[in-house]
Structures are given as C-alpha cells and as structure tokens.
Amino acid sequence: MQAEDLLPSEEGMGLTLCGDLFPEAGPPHWPLDGPLTVRTCRSCQGPFRAELLRDQPMVPRALLQGAGCQYWPGARPLPHWSPRPAVLLGRLDCRAVLLRPELDRLPDALCLQLDGLSPGTAERSGRLFRRTFALRAVREIGAWNSSGGLHVTDRRTGVQPNGRIIADGSPLRIAYEHQGSRRYRCEKSPHDNRTCSNVSLHTRLPAFSATQLELNILQIPSFYNLTLEIVDPREFTVQPVRGRMTPQRARAIGLMVAGGADRVWPSGVLQPWMYRLPISAYDAGSMIPYSFMTVRQPPQLRVDSLFRLFSPGTWAAIGVSTLLVAVLLSRMLNRSSVAESTTTALAMLLGQSLPLGRGRLPARHRPLVAVWVAMSLILTTAFLSDLIKALTVPRSQPPETVSDLVQRNYRLFSDFPSMQRLYSHSARPLVRQLARDMSVVRYDRKELLHTMLRERSAYSTALPAMLETMAEVMIRSQGSVQFEDFAFGREAFGHMLVGRLWSKHHPLLAYRITTVRRLHASGLLSTERFEQQAQHLGRRLKALACARRQASCYTGAVVRPLTVANLHGPLLLYGVGAGLALLVLLLEMLLERVLKRRHRQPEPTEGADISSPQPSGSAE
What we know:
The protein has helices spanning 94-98, 206-218, 220-224, 247-257, 303-307, 312-332, 338-349, 366-392, 402-407, 418-424, 429-436, 445-452, 463-476, 509-522, 527-547, 568-599; strands at 15-18, 38-41, 86-90, 108-114, 125-132, 139-145, 149-152, 171-176, 184-188, 195-201, 227-231, 263-265, 269-270, 279-295, 411-414, 439-440, 457-462, 486-488, 494-503.
C-alpha cells in the first residue's frame, strides 16, 4: 500500500476511511468547509470511520472490526505542509511511526495501535496516540475496545483556546533574505555556517524595530513555544524561483518551496505573481506607499553660489568698468612713482579710502571717483542683500510630484537594491525614467549623509523606512538637520500590498493573520507612530544641541549662524585673492627694480678727460 492511500489530498477535508462506508449511512454531513475527499485503505479487513472537526478539539468516533490497516509512511517527507490531519491505524508501533520525519509536516496525526489478537477474537482492544505538528513527542490520548468503544482521556489539541500552540520547542525555520542594506544584519553561527546565530536591525525608531523584528519573528517562539532557526539561503543548493525579484529573494523563496524553510524574512511586499507559487501568502490588510523625500540644504557658501547672485551681464559690466577705471587711474596718477600709483589704484578699486588732496588728485578727476564710489556702494549693498537672502530664504520649493523630480533633474537613491528593480517595472513612464538613473548607496555613516545632503537628490523607499532613515540622518548630522528640514513628496510612485510569505498550508498561518489584523486595528503599526517618534527625536536632538551651544540650536525664525564648515566659498575666494595680491606685489617689486636699473646713469671711467671742450674759435 502507498502512503498516498491514507494521506489526505490538498483539497480534502481531513477524512481518512479504512474499509467500506455503510451504504445506508449516506454521505456525511459534518461541519466542514469545502469538498470532502475520502481515501480508502485497500488492505483493510473491517470497516472504519473517523471524524475530524477542523479548528475544534479533535473527537474521533470510530467503529472497528477486524485487524485494521497496515500503514507505512512514504519514502520522503512531504514537500509542504498537508492542509488537513491524517488518521493511522493497524497493528503497528504508533510511537515509532508518528515520529518518522515523513510525518513532520502533518498538522495533526492520530494512530490507533491494535492488539496482536486475531480478527476472530471476541474482545479486541487498542491504544490511541496523537502527535500535533509542533510536538516532537507522541501522547497517548485514549483507548479502544470492541465492547465499550473509544474512550478519549486527553482532549488537548495543538492549539489552546487563546490561540497559543502546545509545543515542545519544535524548530521554526526562517529563510533570511539579504536585502543589500546594512540595516539588517545576520551573524553567522560558529557551529553551522548555514544558520544565523543572531539577527539585528539597526534603527533609531523603537516602532520600526518593534514592527520589523520583535513582532515579526522574535516574539513568535514565546507565543507558540517554538525554537527559532534562521537559515541563510546562500549556503543551500536550491533552485531559485522565477519572477520579477532580486536574486536574494528568489533563493529565499526557492528554499521555502523546497521545504527547507517555513517563512521568509524580512521581505514584506506581495506581488500578484507570488500567488501562483506553491507557497501561502497572506496580506496584512494595508497598502504602503512608496514615495520620496528631500532635505533642505543647510546654509553653505560655495564659489558657484556666490557667482550666481549676479547675472552674467552684471559681472561683465563690472569687469569692463573695472578695466576702464584702472586705465583712467593710470593716466591720472602717472606723475607718482610706480609703487605709489599702483597701491593707490588697488586701494581705490578695492573700495578703500583714497586721499583726495589737491596735489594727489586734481579737481577735474573727482567726478570719476564719486561715480566709482557710488557704483561700488550700490553693487556691494545688492550683493550683500542677495547673500543674506540666499542664507535665510530657500531659493526653490522642494519637489512634490514625480514630474517635478524629472523636470528639475533630481536623482533617486536608496540603500535597498530592490527599489531600482521595482521602479523599473512601473507602469508610469516617468518612474521608469527615474529608475534608469537611480543609484544605490551603502547604509553607513558618511555615504548616506553625504548623498542625502547633496543637491538634487531624493531618497526613495517605503514610508516607514523613510522615517527611519530620517532619524538616522538627523543623528548623523549632529543636529544640523532637523525634522522641519525634510520634505515628503505628495505623489507616490505606487502602493504595495504588505504581507508575509509562509510555507504552503502552514498551521500557524491562520493565527498569524489574526494577530496581524489585531495589531493593525490597535494602531501599533500605523505610520503616525513613526512620525511622532521622529518628531520627538528631532526635538530631543535640538535640546541637546542647545545644551551644548551648537550651531544647530538656532533653527526656525532665527538665522543660523555661519560656521567655518559652511563658508567654503568665501574662504576659497579669500585665499585666491590673497594669492593674487601677493603675486601682484612680487610683480610690482620686480618691475620697480627693472625700471630703476634702466634709469640709472653710467659711472665715469678713470683717467678720462672730463673738462669741457674749448670752442674752436678761441684757439689761436
């Protein structure tokens, strides 16, 4: 006899029949959902019937005559969990049979062990054993005899009335999906390289850690008395499933399909093609938007920002007028020495005081000086006003839609490589255009902060992960970036269904669905909690910065004071100007020395007659 003769099918409702059903009994009318599939044991010598009520304490009602069935499990374990229980009976060692690995994926199994008497004996007896899916031990739950029938003494099922599982530390294998981001970490076990001794989540928000780590996997063993075993799919030889997913997710799901894992973590996005795989996928009843966020740049003066304050025409006019004034000054100050005239011209061009004495500057040249001073005052006032405006008022509003990102040449980035693959298959052309230039950065201290503060950069992922990244940036910037500096896009790239992937027909699936829905109804998984914690973190960082008298304390209506780190542009211009001034000084000294040598008179030689010549007419 084959194992398939007694194991219920995937569509069956958990009835195993050994022998022939009495014709007068008619079809059973038990409260079971779906079709009823009956498996018949071919080598039975008497009728047998058992009733299994799903999701209720199991109460078997059996009528036995004869020796029963001889059952031996199959040659290999089931590829996934069986959806319904199974019943075994016959002259066999039930304790040894129920502990076979071929029955590990049965949610419930009964075994009636008959005595070794011949079928013609008047009084027959047997012992009823049971093993639930989470138990590695077999319990004796009752006895049977031909005169008194079946007496069940232990009616415990694998599930308590409060939903907890009666288990003894059976393993719950979780396939760890490598996200490519360093916020999820898997520490390899020193004893087995294929398993993780510990998993951690680097986060600054308690709500993110509670939803992604504690409630998701770490609290399951305490709820159901299971042993958590996290395996690395990269260390197993499995066939990855096909689909629009990353290679890491394909290997994790492939390991679960092959029977090497019970669920996948931390993946929580469900896609329509996943429902065609031989797995159980359930949604949490919520849709998470995938959007973007930008950061308002802190006040930084760079060379390009200083030059952009004036238009190219204004800079051209300043250059032409400066050259013109320099030429006029050279004509006006030609009577002075070269060094003195050059110093006076430089002082005037730089806007310093110029001696207007009667001997230094004639009265006819004073209108030129007045015009130059007035123009310098106007240009200086305009430049300073634009500079203050650039430091206090943002030059442009942050992008709010996908079209704004494309028109302003923004570039998306994320620390999850799966985001680029996800956006590249979007139905919107603009999202696909952004995905082509999207970059993936490492989740470390310097690169994430540098990329976030870069101009025309937008971070994109799910909304809870964006809030967690916001908290990380606020901490890594030492308070210079506050909660008010972040701007979220009003238009989402898309909405993804949130759920979990489990092994097919896993017994914990129904109870986990109920638990997650209760958590959503309580508000523990809402995004408002993430926003409140991020705002609280921002206020705490601001208070700490004010206690330390840091520059980041001055936010809001108060203009932030400039620091050396934010004055790269002026310092660079000052250095270039000082270098040019030093170069001009050296050239001036060299020019003055050359001119002195040219105007120097040649000295007379010894013995030369220096007497004045006599006129020719006086000689006699």
